[in-house]
Design brief:
The complex is a heterodimer. Chain A is an alpha/beta fold. Chain A has four domains: 2-71 and 191-243, ATPase, nucleotide binding domain (Nucleotidyltransferase, domain 5, 2-Layer Sandwich); 78-186, 3-Layer(aba) Sandwich (Rossmann fold), CATH 3.40.50; 253-442, Nucleotidyltransferase, domain 5, CATH 3.30.420; 459-543, no CATH class. In chain A, 35% of the residues lie in helices and 26% in strands. Chain B is globular. Classes of the chains: A alpha/beta, B alpha/beta. At the A-B interface, helix 7, helix 13, strand 26 and strand 27 of A face helix 1, helix 4 and helix 9 of B.
Chain lengths: 558, 436
């Protein structure tokens, strides 16, 4: 059996699953001050001593890192930055605790300026004097060669409580994002480590021997022990949980749209061939643009409880929310009131809905039913416009080869999954507007916990091979080795996949869940003075987000 | 010194799957390290930098700027339609005010492609700036446009297309043609009889450094632009003046390129040549983008940059000063030059021999221009290449006067197609393109 828990901002949802069958569900209020207590409360409702020995997997999605960042409950971090020539990075938050050092590694991974050990030692000393004992080390182009970051790490190791390295957190290029990612990782490291320890202690005390995993922003899981070094990856796992839940419940295989219609906002996610789309560079949290792999979710300020108004001849819906629907005792008319009046849902008081909508109907010069219909349609229309805008944005994403420009694959969703309070009521109209088949998955109210329970381990890895320098680099793994000058793209792909398999099994992936995929495999002849001097090979591989094992949902399929 | 941030559009299309031939400088790898630099600097995360996917140019777009022999589909490949389309996308975004300026960082380049195209020369098949300029005029009405070609090679293609157009100012600065391909671009190449002084050439001695380039900019280019009063300024941004370029001999730096673009402040920049793909392009492109976007470029330096080592000699400075002085004297006297050049003639002819180095084709051309006081003048071209192709073309200029129009239409009708593989008619004012 599998236990899935999503510790959300308001509620903590938990499910106990046997294969794809939901055995038991639980919902408790989240105690923001003590997430562990919420976790325990939800677990206690589902797991007794008989169940705990039958568990073979526990997955948690937790707001711990997200909350720590949002509420600024983080440690002070000193940053050693090797910026080199170029654009000076903008450092909005952590400017006073940053120190720029000499040194430079270029795009080929060649060191073109040396570190100054004296300067670095001095900077570390100053951080110590300021009471800083958490350090982030970030170099420009460090994914191409982590050598200088590692050298600084050796200088600082015995003087700092803990260090985060830019090159370990992502293989992608983007220095400002690498700085933000490293900073956040180190800032929440201590708090997250304590939480992980407590969870492990609790599991041991309860006789839970199953591996415990944590859900990441990309909708994949990571073993809790392994996650301790990469707490930043656990941010924004809440939305990822819901998306994975939809994936698990509906068994999506094609291009599709998923909407989670809440009270204040509607979250939009797109699937390509059944896999949720990722942010092109990385997730954004509290204004920090990061390199953390995250699902591409678009949130718009329209939900069931959005305030409805009629101004200048137009219906205004959201983004304001002032409480629940009037029919349920709220202060203002909302789309939910319109749906209640139209008999599309059986919650709430119809008369109160009518009373709340009356002023709008009067302003429109229409009957109250007519007004409700208009509000309902406008709400659906606005959501569909946002969905279409996101599809256009993705289909117009720049590409860099003639082949992709002319033959590039476009997203053409055929199915629309809708979860959230007004899902049943809105799905038909939304699917009509978006020309998709509607689907409201069963157990949608626990989609988040189910998603956590069933998500498989994901991992990504970038490999660079430079046959002129005879050097192969996988910076994220801190790995470099010599290669022969005849090394080919196929060799590179083989090596990358083998290393990814190692990495994924360290992260807790089961052999049957390693659905490896080559994201990118480019090979360039390096030509100097009309002569080919070597090959520059770049390979990125991943295990994409998906559902564990050979579980293919049947009964719940739309 | 730092201008307030502007919204800058970036059309980045490195065509990672296209090369002229496996060991050719115009190859897949060319913008690879530029891409690395743009990504690593996080430029695309900046709020005032917007990246666009290039559109595809159409054969109609190409026929507004060229006579392709025998026709456009046999001259261009998809890669050319994309790079011309990328330049058009950049223009579109500027003219619709989505952005303040835009840089089309695309390949392959185009500034050696002339009006008549029998094949590829200087790595170029079609002229992506000219295709863009004619697209702008077709969709946004007649405009006065200045094209500043800062590639190290003379922009002979662009010069050829606009030789007779008084509404297009073509300024090319380049390494002296006696020392570099294509061997042209001297001061006395000054435009056709109705467009004197709207073609400007400033050859620079080998080893010219930042100081020399910026001196030419301040003393000659900017004053002439100011005099011309263009609606749009375009930089044909070749990057082969760089001190590390493998096929040229100049000493321009990333700092110099950035400063030049800051001062020139082009509405649109279009990448041309530049083959120091590792040591120059990442830094030069970064410098240009930052300067266009009004961001701090002061720390953009090549890792081996040493201004002292790159300083130009006093002799070079003196030669450049002299060149500027002679040019400005000529420019001031351009009105009186016409009388001297034309005399009493109604039509002027010039003969040209054009060699297509990339494709190994030789072309002989005779160009006839109607001397006109009211417009750029009717132009007729007879061209024969050693491929056996012989063509005749009639061109009506933008803002064409009634006389030139009547005569041009008449000539096209009367031309006997039997003598030629193809007879063309291009009406730049109305955007009409006919063949027979």
């Amino acid at each position: 059996m599998i236990l899935g828990i999503d510790v959300g901002g308001t509620h903590t949802d938990a499910v106990l699953m046997d294969g794809l069958t939901v055995v038991k569900k639980a919902k408790v209020r989240t105690d923001e001050e003590n997430l562990l207590a919420s976790l325990l409360a939800a677990t206690n409702e589902l797991v007794d001593s008989r169940v705990s020995v039958q568990l073979h997997r526990v997955v948690l999605s937790t707001t711990l890192s997200t909350n720590a960042i949002v509420q600024n409950k983080i440690d002070r971090v000193g940053l050693l930055l090797i910026s080199g020539p170029g654009l000076p990075p903008q450092l909005p938050v952590f400017e006073q605790d940053s120190c720029f050092l000499t040194g430079y590694t270029n795009h080929r991974g060649r060191e073109s300026a040396c570190l100054d050990d004296g300067q670095a030692a001095n900077a570390i000393r100053q951080f110590r004097a300021m009471g800083i004992n958490h350090l982030g080390i970030v170099g420009k182009f460090s994914p191409r060669n982590p050598h200088q970051e590692m050298a600084l790490g050796r200088l600082a190791a015995d003087q700092m409580h803990h260090i985060s390295f830019g090159h370990r957190l992502s293989g992608h290029l983007n220095f400002p994002r690498r700085i933000a990612t490293t900073y956040l990782n180190e800032a929440v490291w201590n708090r997250y480590r304590r939480f992980a320890t407590e969870v492990l202690n609790f599991a041991a005390a309860r006789g839970i021997g199953a591996p415990i995993c944590i859900l990441k922003a990309d909708g994949g899981t990571i073993d809790i022990r392994h996650s301790v070094e990469f707490p930043a990856q656990t941010i924004l796992s809440g939305p990822a949980a819901s998306v994975m839940g939809i994936l698990a419940l509906a068994g999506c295989q094609s291009d599709a749209i998923a909407l989670d219609i809440g009270g204040t906002t509607t979250d939009i996610v797109l699937f390509a061939d059944g896999a949720p789309l990722m942010e092109p560079f990385g997730a954004t949290i509290e204004g920090h643009k990061t390199l953390i792999r995250g699902l591409r979710t678009r949130s718009i300020g329209i939900g069931g409880d959005s305030v409805v108004d009629y101004r200048e001849g137009e219906l205004q819906i959201g983004p304001r929310r002032e409480g629940i629907a009037a029919a349920l005792g709220g202060p203002f008319p909302t789309p939910t009131d319109a749906m209640i009046l139209l008999g599309m849902t059986d919650i709430g008081c119809r008369d109160r809905a009518a009373a709340a909508l009356q002023p709008i109907a009067a302003a429109m010069g229409a009957g109250v039913n007519q007004a409700a219909t208009a509000i309902f349609r406008e709400t659906c229309r606005k959501i569909s416009v946002a969905v279409r805008a996101l599809i256009d944005e993705i289909n117009n994403q720049p590409v860099y080869t003639i082949h992709e420009l002319l033959e590039g694959r476009l997203i053409r969703p055929r199915t629309l999954y809708v979860v959230g309070g007004p899902a049943q009521a809105m799905a038909p109209e939304l699917s009509r507007l978006l020309a998709c088949e509607p689907c409201v998955p069963a157990h949608a109210e626990a989609a988040n916990a189910i998603g956590a329970a069933l998500a498989r381990t994901t991992a990504e890895l970038t490999l660079l091979a430079d046959t002129e320098q005879r050097l192969l680099t996988i910076a994220e793994e801190g790995f470099q080795c010599e290669i022969p000058s005849r090394f080919t793209r196929e060799d590179a792909i083989r090596t990358a996949l083998a290393k990814l398999r190692e990495k994924a099994s360290r992260m807790g992936a089961a052999e049957q869940d390693m659905d490896l995929e080559v994201l990118e495999a480019q090979e360039y002849n390096m030509v100097r003075e009309f002569r080919t001097t070597g090959k520059n090979i770049r390979v990125t591989v991943q295990i994409k987000p998906g559902v564990i094992g050979s579980l293919t949902p049947k009964e719940n399929r739309c | 010194m730092l201008k307030p941030p502007r919204r800058t559009g970036l059309v980045f299309f490195p065509a990672f799957d296209w090369a002229i031939s496996p060991n050719h400088p115009e190859r897949e790898e060319r913008l690879l390290y530029t891409q690395d630099q743009i990504f690593e600097e996080g430029l695309l995360d900046r709020e005032n930098i917007v990246e666009y996917k290039p559109g595809l140019a159409t054969f109609e777009d190409i026929n507004r700027a060229h006579f392709c022999v025998p026709d456009a589909p046999s001259i261009v490949t998809e890669s050319h339609l994309i790079s011309a389309g990328g330049a058009i996308t950049a223009a579109q975004k500027v003219l619709s005010n989505e952005v303040d300026n835009a840089f089309a960082l695309v390949r392959p380049p185009g500034h050696h492609a002339m009006l008549v195209v029998h094949g590829a020369r200087g790595f170029c098949n079609v002229n992506i700036e000219a295709i863009m300029v004619e697209w702008i005029r077709h969709h946004h009405g007649p405009k006065r446009i200045a094209i500043i070609d800062t590639d190290c090679h003379h922009g002979d293609g662009t010069q050829d297309i606009y030789w007779n157009d008084p509404d297009t100012l073509c300024i090319s600065i380049h390494q002296d043609g006696r020392t570099l391909y294509p061997g042209t671009g001297f001061r006395d190449e000054f435009g056709g009889p109705n467009a004197l002084g709207t073609t400007i050439n400033i050859p620079l001695p080998p080893q010219t450094s930042d100081e020399g380039f910026l001196m030419v900019l301040e003393r000659a280019i900017l004053p002439i632009i100011e005099d011309f009063k263009p609606d749009l300024v375009i930089n044909s941004a070749g990057q082969d003046n760089h001190y590390t370029d493998p096929i040229t001999n100049m000493r321009f730096s990333a700092q110099g390129y950035a400063r030049l673009n800051e001062r020139l402040s082009p509405h649109i920049a279009v990448l041309e040549g530049g083959y120091a793909i590792e040591q120059a392009l990442p830094y030069v492109n970064l410098g240009i983008i930052l300067a266009m976007a009004g961001l701090d470029y002061s720390q953009v330096r090549e890792p081996d940059y040493d201004p002292a080592r790159l300083r130009q000699s006093p002799e070079i400075t003196a030669r450049i000063e002299q060149e500027i002085e002679s040019l400005l004297r000529m420019y001031k006297a351009r009105q009186s030059m016409k009388t001297r050049l034309v005399g009493g003639a109604n039509y002027l002819k010039r003969q040209k021999a054009i060699y297509y180095d990339t494709d190994g084709i030789s072309e002989q051309q005779e160009e006839t221009v109607r001397v006109c006081g009211d417009c750029g003048g009717l132009v007729m071209i007879e061209s024969v290449a050693d491929t056996g192709n012989r063509i005749f073309a009639t061109i009506l200029p933008g803002r064409c006067c009634p006389d030139c129009r009547t005569k041009g239409e008449h000539f096209y009708e009367r031309t006997n197609p039997g003598k030629y593989n193809r007879v063309f008619f291009q009406d730049r004012e109305k955007g009409v393109f006919l063949t027979k």
